[in-house]
Amino acid sequence: RFSEVSQAAAIEVFAVVKAFNDDAHEKKVNLSIGAYRTDDSKPWVLPVVRETETAMAADTSLNHEYLPILGLESFSTAATKMVLGENSAVLKEGRATGIQTLSGTGALRVAADTLKHVLKYNSFYFSNPTWGNHKMIFEHAGFTETHQYRYWDAANRGLDINGMLEDLNAASANSVIILHACAHNPTGVDPTQEQWKQIADVIEAKSLFPIFDTAYQGFASGDLDKDAWAVRYFADRGFELMVTQSFAKNFGLYNERVGNLAVVVKDASVIPALRSQVTLLVRGSYSNPPNHGARVVSTVLNNPKLFEEWRTCIRTMSSRIQEMRAGLRERLEKLGTPGLWDHITSQIGMFSYSGLSAGQVKFIAEKYHIYMLSSGRINICGLTTKNIDYVAEAINDAVLN
Ligand code: PMP
Asked: Which UniProt keywords apply (predicted)?
């Protein structure tokens, strides 16, 4: 049996990180995987997280008993409130519920399983391009009708709103539409508020089901409310929807797998039955989620002093990203690199769709030992005040070559 197993395709982002790790060049730069780095190119444990973990380690009232199947309630309630907002009418009416999941990926998987097996959806749409995992998650959950909607306008390096609206308009009713709540991965291009309204109009008219993938709340702009605007707009308009939240980026808790699936329904009375169905799906999958990261997030979100400290941390991260964006653009413009580079600063979040071709990406990796994805996606967090000149020169050389 095992002798018949063929080699599966590598996941690009992990292959690029391996190539970077194996490269001994002293000036090498990793602009690939989506994780925050300090100006010293180091991972950052948020001080508020360290402080909370230290207190937890000393707290003898905590233990390692199983969490409930749907997770730590103080966490999922706080996470749901964080995305829907303090004054959410949906929350006041009891029309939302939260389920702790294995980070954003796990939230998407529980969402997909619920939509497929409980609500009987079978068709889903994701943006072209999108985060590399959406398709696989939904297909593994059993969805057999996979579609894309237009999103990136390569010529203008922006959103193809007309293409997007046309494709959503042509979607079959009863399709699930995956939307990025903010800081679209990989393009860094988000709809404006006006465009979100147009998107909502089509989704409503066609009875489509929206899911907001929310991996960057607070991390994108430094402002939790701004980054949740689209979700709250849809919720306030009366949609039933799901929100898949990741706390990997905004808490720096990548390997702790902290996520939440928030579900907004029209009629609060359906929530117990829904939760009972999700309980069976989770029980048959991973049984119950891990405690540590969720407890850290719950402690911080539920304590005003720690919450303020955390807000300072997300502002530190988002400002560094914005400074690096401005710095890269300024350098390319100063070098006179052919092309327009304003998209680097108009895009938001950790990624920039640079517009570099696969050939240029290869050239830069071979000559300069700077690694990015073949799509030209750059993780801006990989830039520092020490390597930004070197990266700008490499991009300039690749464009001129
Ligand atoms: N969705 C998007 C758009 C993402 O960029 C990511 C992280 N790269 C995720 C979901 C989920 O990540 P995680 O499972 O680590 O929370």
From this structure: Aminotransferase, Cytoplasm, Pyridoxal phosphate, Transferase
Do residues 289 and 323 both lie within one domain? no
pLDDT of residue 401: 87
Residue from 11, 83, 105 to probe ligand 1 pocket by mutation (most atoms less than 8 Å from CB): 105
> Per-residue pLDDT for 235 more than 90?
yes
Distance 149 CA to ligand 1 centre (A): 20
Last residue within a domain, chosen from 245, 274, 302: 302
401 within a domain of the structure (yes/no): no
For the record, the structure tokens of 56 come out as 């937890």
Same domain, residue pair 370 and 262? no
- C-beta separation of 152 from 160 below 8 A: yes
CA separation for the pair 205, 282 (Å, rounded): 33
Percent of the chain past pLDDT 90, that is, above it, reads: 95
> Which residues sit with their C-beta closer than 6 Å to ligand 1?
34, 103-105, 131, 180, 185, 213, 215, 246, 248, 259
Question: 240-261 burial string, b = 16+ CB within 10 Å, else e?
Answer: bbbbbbbbbbbbbbbebbbbbb
Domains contained in the chain, number: 2
Specify the ligand 1 atom closest to the Cα of 134.
1
Q: For residue range 258-315, what is the model confidence (pLDDT) as tens digits?
A: 999 999 999 999 999 999 999 999 999 999 999 999 999 999 999 999 999 999 999 9
The string of pLDDT tens digits covering residues 143-198 is 999 999 999 998 888 999 999 999 999 999 899 999 999 999 999 999 999 999 99
Confidence (pTM): 0.96
Q: How far is the CA of 259 from the centre of ligand 1 (A)?
A: 10
Residues 297 and 339 both lie in one domain: no
Residue with the smallest CA separation from ligand 1 atom 10 is: 104
| Mean pLDDT in residue range 329-346 | 94
Indicate the burial class of 44 (C-beta count within 10 angstroms; 0-12, 13-18, 19 or more). Answer: middle
